[in-house]
Amino acid sequence: MASGTGSTEDRSYTERLTRLGGARWKQVLDVQAPYRWNLRRHLGGRTVLDVGCGIGRNLQHLDPSSVGVDHNAESVGLCREAGLRAITTDELESSEEMIPGRFDALLAAHLLEHLPEGAAADVLRPYLRFLAPGARLVFICPQQRGFRSDATHTVYFDDDLLARTMREIGGEVVDQSSFPFPRAAGPWFTYNEFVTVGRLADRR
Q1: According to the model, what pLDDT value does residue 28 have?
Q2: Hey, which residues does 50 pair with through a beta bridge?
Q3: pLDDT at residue 202, as a whole number
Q4: GO annotations under biological process (predicted)?
Q5: In a 10 Å sphere around its CB, with 0-12 CB exposed, 13-18 middle and 19+ buried, how is residue 55 labelled?
Q6: Which of 164, 147, 59, 156 minimizes the C-alpha distance to 106?
């Protein structure tokens, strides 16, 4: 399944993320509560490299030592305004935050489905040098309804494709799940997610 038009690099995409995340009904119901719990369950207490951090929706709930990376300078600016550690992809080589082996986890949440077909492993590999041996890897992607909800989505990542991507970057799959509801909810619930957790092989 593939589609995708539009860009995640410009101001309009940042504005869209901000508008969707700030919807009043989402604030009243605290719809992010179960997702925060799941994020902390997998990554709590770890120094995380959040690749494709966007406006910091996940980054704000990770350990304060964590760092977000995004190619959208507007989104990174909002992260910094909120007091989060974030850099653009252009700053990757020059940032003092990026020390080889510093991070003991990598998060790619709602990133892979935006990339060109076949590009996921190549996009992730440059970040591996910043991970400690045995680092935890967490990939999160939308299921069917969520995939169709955004014109910038390009490739549909299910459990099989997520597992393949994990292996392509030298990781081993530890767990795969559907969250917050079972897989059957994917066609009708926009926010049902595939969650793949892995471990980076010790490269020493």
Answers
A1: 46
A2: 68, 107
A3: 72
A4: methylation
A5: buried
A6: 59
The sign of the CA dihedral 142, 143, 146, 151 is positive
pTM attached to this predicted model? 0.88
| Token representation of residue 142 | 């939308």
Structure token pair of residue 156:
């549909």
Q: Is the pLDDT of residue 97 over 70?
A: yes
Query: DSSP character for 116?
Result: P
Top CATH class of 11-200 equals alpha beta
> In angstroms, rounded to a whole number, what is the distance separating the alpha carbons of residues 147 and 52?
17
Structure tokens at 91: 């700053």
Tell me which DSSP letter residue 115 carries: S
Bridge partners (DSSP) listed for residue 106: 49, 137
Phi, psi of 68 (to 5 degrees): -100, 150
Can the peptide bond before residue 180 be classed as cis, meaning omega within 30 degrees of 0?
A: yes
CB of 200 closer than 8 Å to CB of 133: yes
